[in-house]
Queue: 3 jobs
Job 1
Amino acid sequence: MGGARSNPNYEQVCTGVTGHAETVFIEFDPGVIGYPVLLGEFWSMHDPTSLNAQGNDIGSQYRSAIFFTTPEQEELALATKAIYQKAIIPAGYGDIVTEIVPAEGNTYWPAEEYHQKYLAKNPNGYDCHSSTGVTFPAENTSEIDDLRPDGTVYPVKVDEENLKKSLDPLSFDVLRKGATERPFTGEYVDTETVGIYKCKACNAELFRSETKFHSGCGWPSFYAPSKDDAVVLLEDRSLGMRVRTEVRCASCGSHLGHVFEGEGYDVPTDQRWCINSVSMFLEPK
């Protein structure tokens, strides 16, 4: 992907003049394996600080790149990049040079059949022979701080192992790793059932159906939490220059979504609390 020549063959790509990057096309079910897990594997299995080279393989076709298909994938790619950057600095590595670019506008050209499932056909072939040797922080390690923004401890201590066993992978990744579900896929996007929305990690009350409205953004939207102290807000700089306001459960610190204001919605607060469906459960009245 990422080159100018249409339908190049493997030999042409290997010259480095077509502009393509050798790329793996991955189809996955986010209900089975979360995108953050795939990204963790990506960062760990090669050297993302190596520009246009991996070990002795040199050329722009060997550059490190991620081609995202949704804004949410872009956010997660940038967020996990920042996490891995912190992890490799103590090992003496420099800046990550991975390209994170949209797949749109870049055609994926499959390699010839003899290159598909290469290691299955060539058992004595090799895996990527260049990596930092630093694994991505363990998937069951929470990205949630123990302290609230005001320095106090969250009153509910989450047992990460038990929570992970009790939830589907996407719910766990959203609540404890700050992931984001795909738009228009959540259970509560268009739900109008009267009731109370509670944190899936600790059962604390978060929102009420009275403040829910249809924003058209693809995620459940509320114009206010049930109580001011039901949530805490943090500055989110995971997208670099674009600063957002993250919403977390005030009881256990689990990630819920983000809040935006001044967008012009006809609601009392002029706010849109954009919350992941999988971070909550609805208790009907």
Job 2
Amino acid sequence: MIQAYSPSTYPRRPVKVGRTLEKWILYLVILAIAGISLYWFILGRGKTFEVNLSSIKGTVQYRANEKDGWNTVTSVPMKIAVSTEIRTLADSEAAIASNDGSKVTLGSYSRIVLAGNVGEINWVQTDGSSHHQTAKNNDRKSYKVAISDGVVESMGTAFEVKIKETDTSVLVLNDQVKITYKDKSAAEAKAGQEIMINPVGKKVQDIDEQELKEDWTLSQIKNDQKNLLAIDSGVLAKAGLSEEAAASENNGTGGDGGQSANSTAATEENSNSNTSISTEPAQSQGKSDISLDLKQSDNGILLSWSGAPGDFESWKVLKGGSADVAYPNDSYRTLAKENNSYLWEINGDGNNYFFRVCAYKNDGGCVAYSNAPSISPSAGSSASSDTAVSSAESTASTASSTQTSSSSSDNSSGTTSRKLCENSGGHWTKASLACKCPKGEVFVASVKRCKKK
């Protein structure tokens, strides 16, 4: 016989209080362990460092990742996020600074990607020259630069990475670096040595004096000394510099704000009486409260200015051949708004140049111009030339609107082809000496530029 129960008389299982309590305790222990593990994981990752593009010279471009198109930098400082790639075009440089105390300067035709900034600084360099100054920082576990042949790790160092067509070199200017090659072998190099990698092999050797005296490397060394950043005394001697002389030079374009000249340089006397300076104002630009002065120095033309409008975001420093020099038609440099002087390196070729500055606003262009004084640098006034990406080259890179070819490469290895390729958003590949265009574009051989399909 089946016995029926009413809800009130249905038999219930006895509640086991002890076992239920044990389960809750176990759950709490698991949660506590997970919380502690998460805390130590986050703590172990370390501090997130802020990285900024602090100054530029010439044309500098960036993109968020390799699938995106290139954008031209119009104002600094500009925050750099992880995976952002920075590249410089012809006669251009870029300075990058991080709050871990490190500084990077890129030379012309250079490319670098920020690969990591949490607990460490990691870069990937694919082309050109980079100069690194790494201050010791207890919050930073490591500072590394990855190249195609391995990974270079700073050990409290000043060093340079130079990637050329057939070889790569790492010049150690202070302390030492360690490189771990792709085959997992490793080597260390100390101040005054370089790591050389080429198709023949890899080795550590003494830096050749002539390599230290190359214009770009020498200017970086001088700039570091000017800013009291350490360079080994033996390296200075090889470069033909004393510590005192290098520190007093104002020749640099490095991590302290590009070629912004300091207040000492701004008072430099014009020692060459053959220099001709005119202070006629520019044509048809209206009254301006910005006053610009020029002075010739041993390294070029020193510009200093005073006055500024109330609302602007950066300076455009301009050089042209007539009094109506204007942005963006003429050669220009971009500086942070805090600057009020700039050293424009230029050969003494006897030509007459007009200079000008404009206060630039991202959504309004140049909101105010200075006067436009001119100067004729005398011969021998500078050891290096400083030719920006000119309006003629810019026009050439955007000249044609008619596509006449679907070819995606250009087998010319000339400098002009490379300039036009990169100015139109392409990437000049070293291996094949060809132009690789962004996704959705092809290289048009007749006009030597990338165009949409």
Job 3
Amino acid sequence: MQDPSALHQSRFFSLVLSVSFYQSPIQYVSDVKADSNQEIHIFPLNTVLFPGGLLPLKVFEQRYIEMTKACIRDNRPFGVCLIREGREVGTAAVPEAIGCLAAIESWDMPQLGLFQLIARGGERFRILETSVAPNHLLSAVIEPIPPDAASAPVDSLCRQVLQAVIEKVGAAQFPAPVRLDDASWVGYRLAEVLPLGARVKQELLEATDAAHRLERLRALLVQQGLKEKEG
């Protein structure tokens, strides 16, 4: 087994670094909130968005162009959910019941019929009911999921591994300020950068509290042969 200080020598760390990091300073704010029984548009994707994370998107389907225009015009978020059944394009996919609000941080239209967006993750939510428009744009009535308790302890192995990643790729690739003493921040950021399958990431998004999320992440790290640095 190896400690996180030797991560740069491991194949596992190479996989971590293969993740595309967003090349811009990111401010960590959590003011993208949901109201009970709020109705929002849903963007089903083959990826999982976590609170505080950034998601680059290329929007070219007409239904999502209309969604993007409405969100920009009304300054409102949409919801990102992992696809449970179906595909990203074509008829409306069936989303997972738990997703993450997304606010458009910046946008550009480099050509007619194409939006390039940077969306920021806000609160998690649970879908209560869905409806599908004639153009296959999915909407849902949602309820917010309360944030993790602030008092959860930070697992030392998870902290050390994330710190090693931050030192390697630079703090500017992560939401500022770096919050290695915040169990939610550590858990969400580690879940983003580890080379995990989408279903595992969804499980981590759905974790009922930060301690449970870190416990699951620790087990995944141990499976990769990592252990805490002594001393």
